[in-house]
Amino acid sequence: MANERIRVYAWEVPVRLTHWINFLSILTLSVTGYYIGDPFIHATSGRQYIMGWMRFIHFVAAYAFLMSIIIRLYWSVAGNTYASFRNWFPFSPKRLQAMRNDIKCYLLIGDKSKCHPGHTQLGGLTYLIMMIIFLFMIFSGFAMYSVSKSGAIWTILGGWLLNVMSLQTLRLWHHLLMYVIFSFAMVHVYISTFSDVKEKSGMMGSIFTGYKYVTHRDWD
Amino acid sequence: MKSNSSGSPDKNKVFDALENKGVSRRDFIKFCSAMAATLALPASFIPKIAEAVVAQKPYLVWLEFSDCAGDTESTLRATNPTIGDIVLDVFSLEYHETIMAPSGKNAEKSLQDVVTNHKGKYFAIVEGAIPMADNGIYCCVGGRSALDIAREVCGNAAATIAVGSCSSWGGIASAKPNPTGAVGVEKAVPGIPLVNLPGCPMNVENLTATIVHYLTFGSLPVLDNRKRPLFAHGKRIHDNCERRGHFDAGQFVQQWGDEGHRQGWCLYEMGCKGPEAFFNCPSVKYNEGTSWPIQGGHGCIACAADNNWDTMTPIYKRLPKVPGFGVESTADKVGVGLAAATAAGLVLHGIGRAISPKKKEE
Q1: Touching check for A40 and chain B: CB below 8 Å?
Q2: Residue-wise pLDDT tens digits, B309-352
Q3: Which of A171, A214, B43, B161 is the most interior residue, by most CB within 10 Å?
Q4: Nearest to A176 by CA among B336, B178, B226
């Protein structure tokens, strides 16, 4: 009985939708963004518009990413308990203790972890850090975009950052954090697969269907 | 030309006055047109500029502190010799260490005379940074520290114009580790009416235009939050660059002297800081509008940017060095290293998981 599984609707539509918009836009932003920083394709004729298109696609993908983040932030307030922003702040003593168990489990020295219908405590903290990085990418992107624009809207969207750090420092971090996102993505996919296999929770499928399968024992 | 004149008697008076100074009407109108263009004013302002410039003879004192006299050099190469004459004749340059005739006590006296007799009416032009460390002893003129002189002379001026990056924000003198504690005028003498004209060197067209603006309208030009005139520093070099088309196309110089370099392609990959620099070089240019660095085939170094020696270097690389990772580290090396370390960690974890003893499953 204890090992029978309950079907839990964990990820609602906005969560899954923004997950995949994030995936596609980050992929696009990384390729075009890397090109903008280090143009690896060179034009064979002056009639081409390679950098022009790369920048255009980068900016369009950036707007898609921004909208996705706005929807996700809204859903962290409006959505179900698994989407809530509360998952991102695991700083109560009880949750910190749970996080220590998560870490031990991932380091293969702890007990079998509980199968979570939502995020683990460590996962929640990771998404807090990722959200801060995403917001920095958005603001620093708009800050760089603002320098050839005029109007208060660009200052509000990112130009204010230029009072905090120089344009080149900002450019460096905008570039470096791309690799941090790559590292996150690798760990993210690995842990999802790892948990899927270990907990048999259907985690990999859940980001498509929204459903996870949790045992009665873990659910209680 | 003169017989052709259909201007008002007032205008003729203006031109007569100039003729007496040995400046032809044609040269003078050229000068006024250039000023209107630099200030982005319509042609209808040219007569107003002409009258304002002729009617007044403002006193100027030029102070040199921790500098290389590069802005002085730039000024001596004012748009063309005729205009240089106009500048020296129209403005009363009372004190300038490099080009003045008096020396020693006499020189210092002429500075004091202006400060005492024309208090609140003269322009102070400052070239060079002001060292603040150890009570400013690292730059002294006539036994007084630069800081002391700046406080008195700039504090009593109608307006102070900081020419060049050093007086605007410290420039190369304030680059790390800045042993003399060099700063720009804004930090050394806070709270005074100030215009920053950064650049290495600043462009004399912008200096003249700033003064002409003051004479014409009785006020300083519109400044940004770093006290730079918008007419000179409101636009990004990259957006007005003559090589911008090559950037958008994807045509880049990849090596000095390669085919792209000979064809005048974009210098982006050679570390050009045009995308980070705000200056009117592409339109005004230097030395009678002859050329400017990018036209000459070298990338922009963002010489007018605040703290450019620390934030805009390496000159020939797109991105700054990653702090704490050694001289040769680029962001990409660090980034690829981070991604590789992550991948390696995951592989190790997978192996660890495969060989670790199976926990008893319930």
Answers
A1: no
A2: 999 989 999 988 887 776 666 788 888 888 888 888 888 888 88
A3: B161
A4: B336
Q: B144 forms bridges with which residues in the sheet?
A: B141
H-state helical runs in A82-166: 93-106, 121-146, 152-157
Q: Which CATH number does the domain housing residue A88 bear? A: 1.20.950.20
Greatest CA separation for chain B: 111
Q: What are the tens digits of pLDDT across the range A72-122?
A: 999 999 999 999 999 999 999 999 988 888 888 888 776 666 667 788 888
Which amino acid appears at position B185 of this protein? V
B271, B318 Cβ separation under 8 angstroms? yes
Chain centre to alpha carbon of residue A131: 6
Which contacts of B38-41 are long-range, i.e. CB under 8 A and separated by 24 or more positions? B38/B205, B38/B206, B38/B209, B38/B231, B38/B232, B38/B280, B38/B284, B39/B209, B39/B212, B39/B213, B39/B221, B39/B231, B40/B231
Tell me how far apart the alpha carbons of residues B84 and B90 are, in angstroms, rounded to a whole number. 10
How many CB atoms are located within 10 Å of the residue B1 CB?
9
> At B229, phi and psi to the nearest 5?
-65, 135
Lowest mean per-residue pLDDT among B70-74, B87-91, B284-288, B319-323: B87-91
Q: Helix, strand, coil shares of chain A as percentages rounded to 5?
A: 70, 5, 25
Backbone angles phi and psi of A98, in degrees to 5: -60, -35
A2 touches chain B (CB under 8 A): yes
User: Is B251:A42 a contact under the CB 8 Å cutoff?
Assistant: yes
Return residues 326-355 of B near A (CB < 8 Å): 331-332, 334-336, 338-339, 341-343, 346, 349-350, 352-353
Residue pair B338/B325 in contact by the 8 Å Cβ criterion: no
Range of the domain at A207: 5-219
Alpha-carbon distance B246 to A194, whole Å?
48
Interface test with chain A among B279, B318, B360, by most A beta carbons within 10 Å: B318
Q: How many domains does chain A have?
A: 1
Backbone angles phi, psi at A106, to 5 degrees: -65, -30
Tokens standing for residue B169 = 């924000």
ipTM summary value: 0.88
Q: Model confidence over A136-150: pLDDT tens digits? A: 999 999 999 999 888
Return the structure tokens found at A167. Answer: 């344009």
